[in-house]
């Protein structure tokens, strides 16, 4: 009897699981991947893409080609709901797809509860939707006339906000196309806390802050954005409420979960992320798996970082394999400490181990080359953005 395995979303865990499935398929199992995009980006290389160091093809996995490699079906669509009793999912186009096992790795969406953020800010998550908007902004700058500085704002003081604004600064001030060279741009990062990036060791923060100062990037600390308007943001900061001019506002705050898992009856946490056990199974539907940013594992509090989704990929593959065969599942144990390598825009990097205070802070062009080798090696496993 043929069993049906549905994979919802083209995130890092699913890409790895499909790659492994191509090497070790199960007979009489039909695999289907559902994703709203044919190209799925590798988050670790997004700053390099924005900075101009990589092409779109080098930083994106071609999902239809990966599915062909794994003898899986690819459907370009969005899932809008799941019925765990009938064991089927519903898509935006109106399809109803049955499953015996389903896995969810659809990432996260911008948390845009701040008034005006959804209308006027550019969300960095989901990443697949961010890059076209960045390209649109470049065209806007190309067509812009006059000498009044263009105000580019990034909201969020985490690693993503730091890497993004440095990548944009590098592209627009050093390696930019000639037709943009006469367009002055001023850069501002707004963060609710202190230290860049927030949550990183002080030694690394000092180096990052010095880099921001050297590049003339303004940083507003202890400043919470309360409203986003068409050409400005309103913040509550140390100097009370004030308006900050913003021609383009990039939203890098903590993202949230899609609405449909909770609306479908899956047990979620307060933020809407699917709660899973040590086997990455939903707490109230054992034939539903979830991984990556959309999942919240019981007894652990891990950041929404790609390193965890990458580590979950092989275990997810094993557990889907085992579940379909009625065999024992393995447990996922998130690491207490993990290596974080940050790109500074101009082929320079910083590194530290989060959760391990004695690990030294690293910096230099060699750190960027190290990160570059790691990222390229990861992407070499998959068909790239050209589908080859």
What's the short story on this structure?
Helix content is 30%, strand content 28%. The chain is an alpha/beta fold and 388 residues long. The mean pLDDT is 90.
Low-confidence stretches: none
Q: Mind telling me the CATH superfamily name of the largest domain?
A: FAD/NAD(P)-binding domain
Number of domains: 2
Q: Strand pairing plus helix content: what structural class?
A: alpha/beta
Characterize the overall form: globular
Secondary structure tally, helices? 11
What is the CATH architecture assignment of the largest domain?
3-Layer(bba) Sandwich
Layout of secondary structure:
Blueprint (H helix, E strand, L loop, with lengths): L2 E6 L3 H12 L5 E7 L3 E3 L4 H6 L4 H4 E3 H7 L3 E4 L2 E5 L4 E4 L4 E3 L2 E4 L12 H4 E3 L3 H17 L6 E6 L3 H15 L11 E6 L11 H14 L2 E3 L3 E5 L3 E6 L2 E6 L2 E4 L8 H4 L10 E3 L4 E2 L2 E6 L4 E3 L8 H20 L12 E6 L5 E6 L7 E3 H15 L9
Parallel strand pairs: 1-2, 1-9, 2-5, 9-20, 10-17, 11-12, 11-17, 12-13, 18-21
Antiparallel strand pairs: 3-4, 6-7, 7-8, 14-15, 15-16, 19-20, 22-23, 23-24
Helix pairs in contact: 1-4, 1-10
């Amino acid at each position: 009897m043929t069993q049906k395995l549905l994979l919802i979303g083209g995130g890092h865990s699913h890409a790895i699981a499909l790659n492994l499935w191509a090497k070790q398929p199960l007979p009489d199992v039909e695999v289907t991947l559902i994703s709203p995009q044919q190209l799925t980006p590798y988050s670790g290389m997004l700053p390099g893409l924005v900075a101009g160091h990589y092409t779109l093809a080098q930083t994106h996995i071609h999902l239809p080609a990966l599915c062909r490699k794994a003898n899986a079906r690819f459907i370009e669509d969005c899932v809008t709901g799941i019925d765990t009793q009938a064991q089927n999912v519903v898509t935006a186009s109106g399809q109803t797809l049955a499953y015996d096992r389903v896995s969810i790795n659809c990432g996260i969406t911008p948390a845009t509860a701040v008034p005006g953020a959804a209308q006027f800010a550019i969300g960095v998550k989901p990443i697949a939707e961010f890059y076209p908007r960045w390209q649109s902004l470049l065209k806007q700058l190309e067509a812009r006339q006059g000498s009044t500085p263009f105000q580019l704002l990034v909201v969020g003081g985490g690693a993503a906000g730091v890497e993004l604004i440095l990548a944009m600064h590098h592209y627009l001030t050093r390696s930019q196309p000639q037709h943009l060279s006469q367009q002055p741009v001023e850069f501002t990062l707004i963060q609710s806390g202190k230290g860049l990036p927030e949550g990183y060791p002080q030694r690394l923060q000092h180096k990052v802050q010095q880099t921001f100062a050297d590049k003339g990037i303004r940083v507003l600390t202890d400043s919470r954005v309360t409203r986003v308007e068409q050409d400005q943001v309103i913040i509550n900061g140390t100097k009370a409420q004030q308006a900050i001019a913003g021609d383009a506002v990039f939203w890098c705050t903590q993202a949230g979960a899609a609405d449909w898992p909770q609306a479908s009856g899956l047990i979620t946490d307060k933020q809407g992320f699917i709660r899973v056990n040590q086997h990455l199974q939903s707490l109230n539907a054992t034939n539903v798996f979830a991984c990556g940013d959309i999942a919240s594992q019981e007894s652990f509090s891990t950041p929404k970082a790609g390193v965890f989704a990458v580590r979950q990929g092989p275990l997810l593959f094993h557990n889907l394999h085992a579940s379909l065969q009625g065999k024992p599942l393995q447990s996922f144990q998130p690491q207490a400490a993990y290596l974080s390598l940050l790109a500074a825009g101009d082929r320079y990097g910083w590194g530290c181990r989060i959760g391990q205070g004695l690990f030294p802070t690293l910096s230099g062009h060699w750190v960027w080359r190290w990160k570059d080798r790691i990222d390229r090696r990861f992407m070499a496993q998959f068909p790239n953005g050209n589908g080859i």
